[in-house]
Structure formats: structure tokens, C-alpha cells
Design goal:
The protein is mainly alpha-helical and 148 residues long. It has three domains: 54 residues, no CATH class; 38 residues; 36 residues, no CATH class. It is built from three helices and three strands. The longest helix has 35 residues. The radius of gyration is 37 Å and the shape is elongated.
Length: 148
């Protein structure tokens, strides 16, 4: 078999590059005897994740009570802050909504249009075309009947 010098040099360079990158990866992810850490851990402050790495299904705390109590305390603080933010947002929305709203309390005998539920198409009417009369009123719920 005959090899051209140029093609042999290209093949040899690729082989050396491949082996060098593997060696460098092995060095960077291997644990050093003196420090008990890999150079990767020193650089990125975490262990290297290899392509074959799978997430552990369990996690064991060194001091389970301390971590769990701290987690519960932190979650309690987050939940309380979330509740407070939700209430503030609801109050702000309520104030904004009620700013230009009239107090519409209806009286007995007032004529009103009722909403039609179960309409099939988007062009169907949303309210009845025939007005109804309020018979009983418990604001905001009213009992209505036809005019007849």
C-alpha cells in the first residue's frame, strides 16, 4: 500500500489532534491526587457533566434536618410574599375597574335585557331582544319575568 506524504501527514495530524483532545478532556475531568478535585471543578465550581451523565433519582443531605428546615422557612417566606403581591394586584385592579363604574343597583319594576346562554355562532345575539321586568331584587342577583 502506497501513502502520499501529504495525505499521510494530514491523517497523522488528525489522529494526534483526536488523541490530544481526548487526553486533555481526561486530564481536565480526572480527580487530582493532591487536591481531590478535578481542574474542571476548580474552574467552574461544579463537577463535569459527561454525555452519559444521568440525573440521580435520590438526593441525600449531610444534615437533613438543617436543610429541610431552611427550605421550609424559605418556601414560607416566598408563599407569603406571593400572597401579598397577589392581594396588592387585586386591590389595584379593583380600584382601576371601579374608578369610572356607576353603582348600578336596579329597582323593582325596572326593564332589563337578559343574557342568552348557549348561543351557537359568533353572530348570534348575546342578549334577548325582549326586555324583562325585575320582580325580586337581591343585589347583585335579580329575579325577572316577561313583560306580559
Amino acid at each position: 500500500m502506497y501513502f502520499n506524504t501529504t495525505s499521510y501527514n494530514k491523517f497523522y495530524c488528525k489522529l494526534i489532534h483526536f488523541n490530544a483532545s481526548q487526553s486533555l478532556f481526561t486530564y481536565n475531568t480526572g480527580v487530582q491526587k493532591s487536591t481531590k478535585f478535578s481542574p474542571y471543578e476548580f474552574l467552574y465550581d461544579r463537577a463535569a457533566r459527561l454525555p452519559i451523565y444521568t440525573q440521580p433519582t435520590q438526593f441525600t443531605f449531610n444534615k437533613p434536618i438543617d436543610y429541610f428546615e431552611q427550605l421550609k422557612k424559605t418556601l414560607r417566606i416566598f408563599h407569603q410574599a406571593s400572597r401579598d403581591n397577589i392581594l396588592l394586584q387585586q386591590q389595584a385592579t379593583n380600584i382601576y375597574y371601579n374608578r369610572h363604574r356607576l353603582n348600578s343597583q336596579l329597582k323593582l319594576g325596572d326593564k332589563v335585557l337578559t343574557r342568552v346562554y348557549g348561543s351557537k355562532g359568533k353572530l348570534d345575539p348575546k342578549f334577548s331582544s325582549i326586555p324583562k321586568i325585575i320582580v325580586e331584587g337581591y343585589h347583585p342577583i335579580y329575579v325577572v319575568e316577561d313583560e306580559c
